Amino acid sequence: MTILVTGGAGYIGSHMVLKLLEVSQAVVVLDNLTTGFRAQVPAEVPFIEGNVNDAALVAKIISEHNIEAVIHFAGSIIVPESVENPLKYYANNTANSRALIEACVAGGVKHFIFSSTAAVYGDPAVVPVCEDSDLKPLSPYGTSKLMTEMMLHDVAAAHDFNFVALRYFNVAGADPQGRTGQSTANATHLIKVACQAALGLRPSMSIFGDDYDTPDGTGLRDYIHVSDLADAHYCAIKYLQGGGDSQIFNCGYGHGYSVHEVVASVKRVSGVDFKVVMEPRRAGDSPKVIAENSRILDVLKWQASYDDLDVIVAHALAWEKKIHQE
Ligand code: UDP
Number of structural domains, the chain? Predict the structure, then answer.
């Protein structure tokens, strides 16, 4: 029994591959390397360069490797880009997922784990936000992921196939052993940007808005360590293999940090007092996005190991240092 990881050369997918190797689970990676890095997949893992919508290729992988489950990370993830180029997101995240799901059903794959997002909630009215809250994505990115959740729901009702969709909150950090991390160029995510400022890779960083209705006026987010997120996927695989019903779970720690708190953590951990510039609010940002996570704790029995902002920052910083020394 082998697991196919799409997007296994990317940020979260590469952590998933390490987790599967750790538990001696056979794994195959399919990645088209548009944003992933071949070097982030260990050499012993079978690697296929290709697209998830290549039905013949996916059929061949499923039969040759006896694929029982697919963990589908491959996709596009930049919210502002999705606003400018929605059709790219409906192609990569919706249409290509549809093609992959079709190949899975045709090939007899039994279990499917899907990378969804807290962006399906848009600007949640109640925080922490639970899975049954209103779904009002504010971007084509969020909609493109929500449409795939809906397809999976219908496919699971019609076929011998179960799925888990994991709605990620703010994924951050890097492998504690420094084997992989977030390598994408032109980062916009807060922790990575702050780490780059601490390392002198940018002259300063900006805080987008300090007039929100939050304790210190800056935005609150639920930052989850990428290795804990990979563990959540592993719990989901076990759950589906055990005959669990198809379900959707929030993936977050259930508490948030403000931008000021994140910046303070990066300064503390790095020991560098880098320059921070106050800027107006960034378009489309919500004041607070925090997960209600009791469902994943109760049903998947997921347990966090790195629920500590300074630890997340330390791992992100170590990875950032490493990639800029290479
Ligand atoms: N943010 C910031 N400066 C940056 C990047 C982000 O102040 O350079 C803020 C942003 O406004 C939000 C939080 O940090 O309140 C998290 O933003 P990020 O882009 O990391 O993730 P998002 O929640 O938008 O997916």
Answer: 2
